Amino acid sequence: MKTPFRLANGLANHLCRVAIGMACAATSAFAAYPDKPITLVVPFAPGGSSDIIGRTLGQPLSEKLGQSIVIENVAGAGGVLGTQRTVRAAPDGYTILLGSGSEILINKLINPKISYDASRDLAPVVFVGTGPMVLLGKPALPANDVSELLQLARSKPGTLSYGSAGNGTPMHVAGELLKMRANISMTHVPYRGAAPALVDLLGGQTDLVVSTLSAAQTYIKGGRVKALAITGAQQSDLAPGIPAMGMQPGLSGFDLGVWFGLFVPAKTPTDVIQKVQKAAQEVLADPEVRKRLADQGISASGESADSLRQFMAAETEKYRAVVKAAQITAE
Predict the structure, then answer these.
(1) Given CA atoms 286, 237, 46, 278 in this order, what sign does their dihedral have?
(2) Per residue in 71-114, pLDDT tens?
(3) CA distance 12 to 5
(4) Cys staple from 124: which of 76, 139, 207, 305, with CB 3.0 to 4.6 Å?
(5) Which domains are present in the chain?
(6) What's the rounded Cα separation, in Å, for the pair 289 and 184?
(7) Helix, strand or coil for residue 116?
(8) What distances in angstroms separate CA 73 from CA 76, 102, 203, one per listed residue?
(9) Bigger pLDDT: 201 or 10?
(10) Contact between 128 and 300 (Cβ < 8 Å)
(11) What would you measure as the largest C-alpha separation in the chain, in angstroms?
């Protein structure tokens, strides 16, 4: 007859074997990742910078991981809807977000009611890259460089207008930072994306626009707008011949750009994140991919999740300072 002790001991051994079996099964499942198609969420409409970058990465990343990658454009609310889509997805590595400053960091600063907190709800995978924005003037603007622009703005306080891709975008934040650093007054005109802002700049409806390089390149090369400065601390090979804002008198250190990274839901297993990170780093090291990103005004990075996390912490403080001082709120 079995004693209670032997029964208890037997049950414990059985439970231990079950637990080990489950752990082994889970490890085996993660080791098999990926064994089905992966969704790459782009939180903006087709045709924009985010979409082009997502599609630039999608095919070679698919080849590295050995599974097809489906680009899913989830546009709306300045990138919030696509980010929410990712946050709510199963944390299994089959939903990846191409994120940028607006939806990952700035939107939460200007609208605390947003349901997600990127630092809590998303796990960085890899730093895709970064690049400067560019300050453009309309063709008839009576200023040909930043110095002349600041003189003009000070001589006519509040009369100049600048457009951006939308309220709370990095372009908006850059425009407000310029106002603060230069102590000038300009009126912000938010648009639903860079394209309509540039159309109104060409037509003279706005005096200035802060834009991504990719959206503005055609107009700059065609001489249809005045490229006054990029928004970096130093000149960039991505925009040869365009002065850097941070090198202008009184604006030393001005440095605010656009950036992109890959993210997954926060509880995604570490080994899955590492697999995606390794594949993405190999993709971002490819000269052809780097060239295609450079054509979009982005210098490829490929740095680790930890590097991206540290970069985001520094960018958050930059954004927070401008948002608070300029009293930027969600509209």
Answers:
(1) positive
(2) 999 988 889 999 999 999 999 999 999 999 999 999 999 999 99
(3) 10
(4) 305
(5) 35-130+258-326 (3.40.190.150), 132-247 (3.40.190.10)
(6) 40
(7) coil
(8) 10, 16, 30
(9) 201
(10) yes
(11) 101
